[in-house]
Amino acid sequence: MSETESTERPERHAPHGPLARSPWALPSAIAREFDPGRAKGRSRRTVRDWIADFTCFFAAVLIGMIGADAVAANPRISQDLAEFDQILGALACAVVWLRRRWPVGLAIAMVPVGMASDTAGGAAAIAVFTLAVHRPFRYVAWIGGASIAVVPLAYLIRPDADMPYGVAVAFGVLLTVTVIGWGMFVRSRRELLLSLRERAIRAENEAALRAQQAQRLAREAIAREMHDVLAHRLTLLSVHAGALEFRPDAPRAEIVRAAGVIRESAHEALQDLRQVIGVLRDGDTDAPGRPQPTLAALDALVAESRAAGMKVVLDSRVPDPAAVPAALGRTAYRIAQEALTNARKHAPGAEVTVTVSGTPGGGLTIAVRNPAPPGDVPNVPGSGQGLIGLAERAQLAGGRLTHGPGPGGGFHLEAWLPWAS
C-alpha cells in the first residue's frame, strides 16, 4: 500500500438506477462496476499504475506469507484448516490485480475471506485501502464497518496462539481502522491536488481572458483617440480642399492660404497620429513627445476653427484653465474638439457657441450649441459614431453627456465631468 496509487480522479458522481435514490445504497454501485460501457471507458494503466499494482501485490503476498507461517505454527488450528487457509490466501492475493476494476466488489468479497483466512489478511487490507482511495465514504462506512465487525468473530473461530483474545481483537480493529484512515487520507490528498490543479487552470484561463479584454480595451482606446484626434484635422483638410475644388479661379493669395492650411493640417494629423499610437503603445499617458492638449488649449482650438471659416463664440467661465487637472482638461478638450468637428460637418455656416464653466468640487460643464444651418444639411456617412465615443469617454471619466436636436432645427451637446476639490 503506497501513496503512489494511480492519480485517476476519485469518483464523485452518484450511482444511477432505482437504488441510487439513497446515497448509502451499495447494490447500485456494485452493478455499475460490472457495466460493460464503464469498462470500455477505462484508461490503460500507466507505468506508475503498474508500479503501484506490483507494490500492492507483493505487500499482500508478504503479509500472506507471515500469516501462513502463523497459521501453520498455531496449535489451535488443524492441519486441514491451515492448508485451506493458505489456499484461500493465495487466491485472495491473485485477485488483488482486480482491485482497480472492481474495488467495491473485491472489498465486499474480502470481508468473509479475511474472516476465514489469516493468509488473506494482506489482500483484505489492500482491498479496504483501495476502496477508501477510489470510492466515497459511504462505501467505506458500509464495507469498512463490516470488516471491523467480523474481527471478533474471526479470532473466535481461529484464536491467536500468542495474544489473548481481547488484545488480538483490539489489534485487528486498530489495524483495519489504520488502513481505512490511510486510504481516506490518500483520497483527500488526491482530491486536494486535483482541486489545486483545477484552480490553477481556471486562474490561467481567467488571466488569458483578462489579457484579451485588456487588448480589446486598448484597441478601443486607440480607435477612440484616433477618431477624436484625426477627425478634426481631416475635416479641416476636407473644407479647404472643397474650397479649392469649387473655386479654382480664386485669388492666388486664397489658394496659397488654403494650401498652407492643408499642408499644416496634414502635418498636424500625422504628428497627432504618431503621438497617440506611441502613448497608447507605451501604456503611459505621461510619455515624452508632443504635449497632450488640456483645457488651456481650447482657445487655440477655437482660433484654428475660426481660421477654417467657422463662426465660433467661446464663453469660458473657468477663471484659470491651466489649474484644471490634466486628465479632466484633456477630456473636456476632446469633447469640444469633436463637437466642433460635428458642427463643421453637419451645420456648415452656422454660428457655434462653446460654453465652459465649473469649479473644483462642483464639476466641469462643456456645452456646445448651434442653430440650424443656413443651407441644406449635408448627408455625412457614418454619423453618430463620434457621439458614441464621446459618451463613452465622459462615462469613463465618471461624468455624463447628453445631446440632441435643439429648438428650430439646431443641435446641442452638453457634458458634465467631475472635478475634485
From TrEMBL:
GO terms for molecular function: ATP binding; phosphorelay sensor kinase activity; protein dimerization activity. Keywords: ATP-binding, Kinase, Membrane, Nucleotide-binding, Phosphoprotein, Transferase, Transmembrane, Transmembrane helix, Two-component regulatory system. Residues 219-283 form the Signal transduction histidine kinase subgroup 3 dimerisation and phosphoacceptor domain. Pfam families: HATPase_c (PF02518), HisKA_3 (PF07730). The chain crosses the membrane at residues 50-68, 106-132, 139-157, 163-185. SUPFAM superfamilies: ATPase domain of HSP90 chaperone/DNA topoisomerase II/histidine kinase. Its EC number is 2.7.13.3. Residues 332-419 form the Histidine kinase/HSP90-like ATPase domain. It comes from the Bacteria. It is an enzyme of class 2 (transferase). InterPro entries: HATPase_C_sf, HATPase_dom, Sensor_HK_TwoCompSys, Sig_transdc_His_kin_sub3_dim/P. The keyword DNA repair does not apply. It catalyses: ATP + protein L-histidine = ADP + protein N-phospho-L-histidine. One of its GO terms (cellular component) is membrane. Gene3D superfamilies: 1.20.5.1930, Histidine kinase-like ATPase, C-terminal domain. Residues 1-14 have a biased composition (Basic and acidic residues). Residues 1-22 are annotated as: Disordered. This is histidine kinase.
